[in-house]
Specification:
This protein is α/β, with parallel strands linked by helices and about 625 residues long. Helix content is about 50%, strand content about 20%. It has 5 domains: about 5-75 and about 170-185, Rossmann fold; about 80-165, Rossmann fold, CATH 3.40.50; about 205-295, PAS domain (Beta-Lactamase, 2-Layer Sandwich), CATH 3.30.450; about 320-490, Rossmann fold (3-Layer(aba) Sandwich); about 500-615, Helicase, Ruva Protein, domain 3, CATH 1.10.8.60.
Length: about 625
């Protein structure tokens, strides 16, 4: 259904309108209807969704009077239209009677001396008056009558001469443009009303508004629930009658706001704000917003929980772990099986193999995925600070403590996962306290005697041999067995074959994409990457590739560039024990011309030990 309808009073205007509107205004529907007939058409089409009607003269006046809520755009009778009609009437006689609604012929008398005619006006206010005034005009000596459609019909009925004032194409187009502006304005207003209604309907607060007479104009759903008053029974009633204790009439009278007042209604305590509605400095109403105090307290608890857990989100999943090597595939499969349980997991692996990536992936694959993921590096903090971070503290528990206290990471990780990286670096005393939390599933803040239950899954990780540390009395055996329920060993990158190339290409695409470059490795560069032992594993590879992207000047990454960067890397680590041993083994192999037995003898170790170290360090 078109939003705009042109209502033509006769066939002549129907023809003109059809031609004038044409393709440029094809969205405007054209209908025929005069006066009361037109009103019936308006009633029918407005019920179907039409919002703006274009018509003229008496039909426009009748619709405005009978249906004031309908938007009407009147086709203007231009001066040219009236002049054309008077000139045509003069041809039928000098005495011209104007029988029309006043809006059609206002100011027509000025044309009498211009055209040399005698103009006498017979203004009508209703269509039923037209015939009587046409007859009277001729009785009083008129040669011709001039007017609209109903005047023409009355003259035709008695076979009397007449001339119609017809609207030209200019006026019709002008009315069409005005109707479109009006329809657009109505659409914008509907959007505003809909937005305003949505705000009211979905606000957390109850909202009641009154007008200047203190009668209720708005009662949103929350207000209806709290007051147990239905909107249909309250709208239009005095607020003193519906809710006397609200006293909004006082706000209307004084124009002063009243904030943060505690009220009680239907046995519920509410917190209420009352403010005046002012327009141009004049108070035209008032509005009250209020909330159930119990709900405010619940919301505060949820906000505090979210604030504590903010940032504690696991960003990695198993989709972020690349590789075609069977060993890593098996590791991922085992990790997924572990994720489906709720037991503690101990992740073992060298530095840089991605232990935290696996920990986050296990969390996101588990039933705790919607809970927080809280990670802490046990090697990064002194023992006392680590203890306060893990278990929290009350205000004044120690010098420098926050006076309001602080929740521990176990509290924050409630219903989620806590990841304890570098667990082997935790001191013996803190290990004992951690063991107690794991056993009892309760935590007590430093300086407090209050015990808080926690539901947390623990994932620990280390690059050291915990069992050896237990034997050396550097790690508690009971904590070791508590953590070592499910053990996941991540293979180093040098044991994963072509996975080095998979990660290298992924990192290259990522870092080159950030600076909008298209880089690729040459075949020789890929071979160079494969030959390297990667003691720093994936983290080292990531750093190397990022450095390559930063310094590479061509689209193809050469083997020379990769070799240069790798040599710079090994030069920096030449003083490390691992590098020294690798260097010694390579020298021995070179002197022994690749014979393992001779090289092992030079190194003072067995052939099997040499073979194991060659595999361990990826020596070729």
């Amino acid at each position: 259904m078109s939003k705009i309808v042109f209502l033509s009073p006769d066939n002549a205007m129907l023809t003109i309108a059809t031609k004038a509107l044409g393709q440029d205004h094809s969205d405007i529907r054209i209908e025929k209807g005069l006066l009361s007939e037109g009103l019936k058409v308006v009633d029918q089409l407005s019920a179907q969704g039409t919002e703006v009607f274009i018509t003229r003269g008496g039909t426009a006046s009748l619709i405005r009077t009978a249906r004031p809520e309908i938007s009407i755009v009147e086709v203007p009778i231009t001066g040219f239209d009236v002049m054309r009609a008077v000139a045509k009437a003069k041809e039928l006689g000098p005495k011209v009677a104007v029988v029309a609604f006043s809006v059609m012929v206002a100011g027509i008398e000025v044309l009498a001396p211009v055209f040399g005619v005698e103009l006498r006006q017979y203004i009508i206010e209703h269509e039923l008056e037209a015939e009587e005034k046409v007859l009277r005009a001729f009785q009083e000596g008129a040669d011709v009558v001039l007017g609209g459609v109903i005047t023409s019909r009355a003259a035709q009925k008695h076979n009397l001469p007449y001339v119609s004032i017809d609207s030209g194409a200019e006026g019709i187009i002008q009315a069409a443009l005005e109707a479109k502006r009006l329809a657009h304005a109505r659409e914008l207003e509907k959007v505003k009303v809909s937005l305003f209604r949505s705000v009211l309907d979905y606000a957390y607060e109850g909202i009641i508004a009154v007008d200047q007479a203190c009668k209720i104009t708005i009662l949103n759903p929350v207000a209806q629930r709290l007051t147990q008053i239905e909107e249909k029974t309250a709208i239009g009633k005095a607020v003193q009658q519906v809710w006397p204790d609200l006293k909004l009439e006082r706000i209307v009278q004084t124009g002063q706001e009243d904030l943060g007042q505690l009220l009680r209604i239907r046995g519920v305590h509410i917190l209420c704000n009352r403010v005046p509605i002012q327009v141009s400095g004049r108070t035209v109403g008032a509005i009250a917003t209020f909330q159930d105090i119990g709900q405010i307290q619940q919301m505060e608890a949820r906000i505090r929980q979210r604030v504590f857990a903010s940032g504690h989100v696991a960003g990695f999943s198993f989709n972020d772990i690349f590789g075609e090597n069977q060993t890593i595939k098996d590791t991922i499969r085992i990790a997924k099986e572990f994720a489906l349980t709720d037991s503690a997991v101990l992740i073992l692996g060298e530095t840089g193999v991605g232990k935290e990536v696996f920990a986050q992936s296990i969390h996101n694959y588990s039933s705790r995925a919607r809970g927080p993921f809280v990670a802490i590096n046990c090697a990064a903090l002194p023992s006392q600070i680590l203890e306060s971070e893990l278990f929290g503290y009350v205000g004044g528990a120690f010098t420098g403590a926050n006076r309001d206290g602080k929740p521990g990471l176990f509290e924050i990780a409630h219903e989620g996962t806590i990841f304890l990286d570098e667990i082997a670096e935790m001191d013996y005393v803190t290990q004992g306290k951690l063991l107690r939390v794991l056993q009892e599933k309760k935590v007590m803040r430093l300086g407090s005697d209050r015990v808080l239950p926690v539901n947390v899954r623990v994932i620990a990780a280390t690059n050291k041999n915990l069992k050896q540390l237990v034997q050396d009395n550097k790690f508690r055996s009971d904590l070791y067995y508590r953590l070592n329920v499910l053990r996941l060993k991540i293979p180093p990158l040098r044991e994963r074959g072509n996975d080095v190339l998979v990660y290298a290409q992924n990192f290259l695409d990522r870092y080159a994409g950030r600076i909008r470059r298209n880089l690729s490795f040459s075949p020789e560069a890929l071979k160079t990457l494969l030959k390297y032992s990667w003691p720093g594993n994936i983290r080292e590879l990531q750093n190397i590739v990022e450095r390559i992207v930063a310094v590479c000047r061509s689209e193809l990454v050469s083997a020379e560039l990769v070799l240069q960067i790798l040599e710079d890397e090994t030069a920096e680590t030449a003083c490390t024990p691992v590098y020294s041993e690798v260097h010694e083994i390579k020298e021995a192999l070179q002197k022994a011309k690749g014979k393992y037995t001779a090289a092992a003898k030079l190194l003072g170790i067995s052939r099997s030990t040499l073979w194991r170290k060659i595999r361990q360090y990826g020596i070729t």
